[in-house]
Amino acid sequence: MRIVDLIEKKREGGEHTRSEIEQLVLGFTRGEVPDYQVAAWLMAVVWRGMTPVEAADLTRVMAASGQRLDLASVGRPVADKHSTGGVGDKTSLVVMPLVAACGVPVGKMSGRGLGFTGGTVDKLECFPGMQMDIDARRFVRQLRDVGLVITGQSADLAPADGKLYALRDVTGTVPSLPLIASSIMSKKLASGAHVIVLDVKAGAGAFMKSPAEARALAEIMVAIGRAAGRIMAAVVSDMSQPLGRTVGNALEVREALDTLEGHGPDDLQPFAVELASLIVALATDGLQGREDVKTALNTGAGLAAFRRLVEAQGGDPRAFEDREALPRAARQVPVPAPSDGYLARLDALSVARAATLLGAGRERKGDSVDLAVGVELLAKVGDSVGAGEPLAVLHVNDEQRLAEAQAALLSGMRVSPHHVPRPSLILDRIGS
Ligand code: URA
Q1: Which of 174, 199, 201 to mutate to test the pocket of ligand 1 (most atoms within 8 A of CB)?
Q2: Is the whole model's pTM more than 0.90, yes or no?
Q3: Structural domains present in the chain
Q4: How far apart are CA 402 and CA 417, in angstroms?
Q5: Using one digit for the tens of pLDDT, what is the confidence trace for 36-85?
Q6: How many Cβ atoms are within 10 Å of 332's Cβ, its own excluded?
Q7: Is residue 294 flagged as an active site residue?
Q8: 3-state class of 244 per DSSP?
Q9: Is the beta carbon of 251 within 6 A of some atom in ligand 1?
Q10: How far is the CA of 11 from the centre of ligand 1 (A)?
């Protein structure tokens, strides 16, 4: 078929064969099919959707478009955990060391923060010297020797996704469940893990605004992974307010270290234990689970695993003993509560906006970030607050946009005179 026939077929709601998807996607990756035709096809997919078989075929074609890691030499099932992205989401920094401390090797490819979402790569760069471009050979060796490795996204894995995502970004074709699912899962399949647990976020600070949409995305990804022979599970978790009590790279690293020392926030800590327990149970066929994860937390074995990761990748581990070794902002500015009552709203997107205005986030790919700045949340939804007491503290280096950041933060907060229940964090589970 000609490419225009494939575009018309999708425009009319038709179902592609695997070879049609190959023709389009691999042709585009090789530079033989022009951007404008692929953009038209992507828009047709946004409107017409894809069947589960098409989404699985698209994922496999993208996964096979570049290098695929072979993790067989690790000798044990390797686990990966993926979050669809949110505000203050430092879960990976806690979950991965806890899982590794239970003897389950964890290998993960992470991204940098973009827009309102943070990225694990930026956070880990708070340890001076930390190398985040680990090549395939070293990735496998570190998995065997250390049991834990995290690297930035490699251009060699699923290059078709890299090209398609860049085009989707500028053609209004990101929000499509099959396109998001195949984009995420192609990278997961190419990076080789046997056990994959997905944390699909729902709410103002997430791609998926409602739990129903997030569940639908999770179901597609779980089905794609299973069809490719992977052990899969997913949770849908709330991202209407940020996770934990910090948003900003060094602040989040500090919180992750505190959590691995057993004194983390009352949402992040149980959530991390829950996810780690799920991964460990799936990777060990149920032989290990929650008790092992709790032991790893209580004995400091998880913290020790995190330290081994930092040292293996050339990072300076001083922050493990002395948090002052982490980047620190020049000034801390409290944001007072306007009245007595209970915090009823803490909009994740407004907090992200405030953090980005202070320099913690990226508006565009390639922008630099200030690792030290961000927002510390002293109250979360359901907490009682007193008029004039600080609701949050802004960690500031550049004062230029401070007033704007304060206004952004306050626009997303509401204090109610009535008692407000704390929202649940885990909203749904798929396949666990
Ligand atoms: N993250 C990805 O990797 N791909 C998408 O399409 C959306 C989020």
Answers
A1: 174
A2: yes
A3: 3-49 (1.20.970.10), 72-320 (3.40.1030.10), 328-416 (3.90.1170.30)
A4: 28
A5: 999 999 999 999 999 999 999 999 999 999 999 999 999 999 999 999 98
A6: 12
A7: no
A8: coil
A9: no
A10: 23
